[in-house]
Amino acid sequence: MTTSELSPFHLAIPVHNLEECRTFYRDVLNCEEGRSSDHWVDFNFFGHQLVIHYKAQSTEDTHTNSVDGKSVPVPHYGVVLPWNTFQDFAKQLSNKGVDFIIEPYIRFEGQVGEQATMFFKDPAGNALEFKAFKDMSLLFAK
């Protein structure tokens, strides 16, 4: 399947404060809100369906793996954006006071797979990564 044939994914994630996370996805990430109930909310997450579901807060620690000497949270999710969109989005998030786990930076600069990436958490502690490839055709390059 090529990227032009991709279908939207559906992802459901747990949140311990539905209203706080609803505000974050709607007002900070600018995701359009869809259907909802008293225990879940649908969002248009960059063309994909993201559903936040209420779940009591967990005390589990976030697992991380070292990548480029940075502690990358696992699990995490996000979207690959066009290069210029990533830059604009990173500035918007910074202006809205988002606390980055890993500040926006460039990986593999000048190499195959050059990419911009950034990590932050939603109010429930779910880790998000947004990235962009300098050359989108190299998304799956080895």
From TrEMBL:
This is Glyoxalase. CDD domains: VOC_like (cd08357). SUPFAM superfamilies: Glyoxalase/Bleomycin resistance protein/Dihydroxybiphenyl dioxygenase (SSF54593). Pfam families: Glyoxalase. InterPro entries: Glyas_Bleomycin-R_OHBP_Dase, Glyas_Fos-R_dOase_dom, VOC_core. Residues 7-133 form the VOC domain.
